[in-house]
Amino acid sequence: MSKISNLFKGGSKHKSKGNPSAQEAIHKLRETEEMLTKKQDYLEKKIEQEIAIAKKHGTKNKRAALQALKRKKRLEQQLTQIDGTLSTIEFQREALENSHTNTEVLKNMGYAAKAMKKIHENT
């Protein structure tokens, strides 16, 4: 029975640690941003290579030139998708950072309010 329940729970390999902290989530988002930026750079270089291949073949070998242009178009679509993903990740990271900052400010304000209350009780 436990094998079946493990199957539906995702197995024992991937046990969740619970809810991640804001710092962990921000760190993961930054890592993902870096990875996508590297992929973006790689795709841009590949696009330049495909343009060079298309220019090299020009009118002499139309089939090779057209294939290079089709690959370039596919790479540009991937690049556009990565741009959208990056902007979403940046938005999420900024929202997390802002909420974390707001949480810290509220904690400190609560602490200060307790201190003020204690001071007023003493007077």
TrEMBL record:
GO terms for biological process: cilium assembly; late endosome to vacuole transport via multivesicular body sorting pathway; protein transport; vesicle budding from membrane. The keyword Transmembrane helix does not apply. The keyword Magnesium does not apply. It is a peripheral membrane protein. Keywords: Coiled coil, Cytoplasm, Endosome, Membrane, Protein transport, Transport. Belongs to the SNF7 family. PANTHER family: CHARGED MULTIVESICULAR BODY PROTEIN, CHARGED MULTIVESICULAR BODY PROTEIN 4C. This is Charged multivesicular body protein 4c-like. The lineage of its organism: Eukaryota, Metazoa, Chordata, Craniata, Vertebrata.
